[in-house]
Structure of dTDP-glucose 4,6-dehydratase:
Amino acid sequence: MRVLVTGGAGFIGANFVHRTIATRPDAQVRVLDAMTYAANAASLAPVAGQIELIEGDITDTALVDRLVADTDIVVHFAAESHNDNSLADPSAFVHTNLVGTFSLLEAVRKHDVRYHHISTDEVYGDLALDDPARFTEATAYNPSSPYSATKAGSDLLVRAWVRSFGVQATISNCSNNYGPYQHIEKFIPRQITNVLAGIRPKLYGHGTNVRDWIHVHDHNDAVWTIIDKGTIGETYLIGADGEVDNRTVIETILELTGQPTDAFDFVTDRPGHDLRYAIDSHRLRTELGWQPHYTDFRSGLADTIDWYRNNPDWWQPLKNHVENKYSTTEKVIN
Ligand code: NAD
Ligand code: DAU
């Protein structure tokens, strides 16, 4: 099977490529990645020689057309993925998440190629802390940030291309991922590398916001399950019952690294900050038989801390730039 992975040099895409090479001997993997600030060629080093990396933009229609013509399936991870960046400047989000998805859809339509669209639970907006409800496939779209609005728009393009043109597509909407190779602008790796670099972790607002954490390997196993067994045209929610508030996440990182659990700073909150995400993945579990394996968040977090501790060459060159950028907007409010 010829597999074209867009965004395969980013966090989830690189982990997907590793797992595909390890578990699918029949797969010939090509990665299409623009190698933006979020990509890291070193993330693909463990599979060097076993894949082809093409540096290019998913909005380059001639390139996309040529690559899609020569593949059996497109798995579309490429995106601008960070909410804080979308608040500072949304333009790249519209370009990549909307125009890029359009470009891929036109190519898979023309060449009648199978397509799997990677999306996020943020398309559903947020939930109150005390709301017993969780997101399901039937929840109405209600995105809050420029990032989540462009992801919601991209999902709707996929649905329209399925219905109007018969494109052979599936969609998955997953909750917050953690694990190796995640860019250190994101919450968990930012705080782990803060502790490792002797910087106090930074908690937005009061830290009561809740995210539904899933290990990246569980996400990627679910993606293959949907590709193998999912129904064309359908959407599947991916989640591992991992709801934790942000303050608890920081306190657990501090505890696991042998620091006092109050050794962090409260900083200015994110504008429009979504309060809580929570996924009901009943459909994926009952219809397609998927189950998460990393069900102990604390032990998954400990493994992730070990990964960053053991791979300083991967993240240290990024650290000053990321923290300098945050320091232009972030104020300590202890
Ligand atoms: P990431 O930012 O780590 O990686 C994105 C990759 O896409 C990078 O390698 C980047 O270079 C590439 N890219 C960006 N613009 C491109 C373009 N125009 N052309 C080609 N490549 C381009 O992102 P991630 O966290 O790995 O997320 C991957 C996907 O999963 C995204 O679609 C995101 O919306 C979705 N998602 C992420 C999470 C999460 O918790 N991180 C959860 C659910 C869904
Ligand atoms: O829900 C899925 C989404 O999860 C994905 O679609 C996004 O691509 C991914 O980035 C993630 O979005 P979040 O905005 O939830 O993730 P982030 O890591 O930026 O922040 C997680 C929570 O931690 C959020 O409530 C904001 C908070 N936070 C974040 C940072 C960077 C802090 O308190 N301090 C920080 O320094």
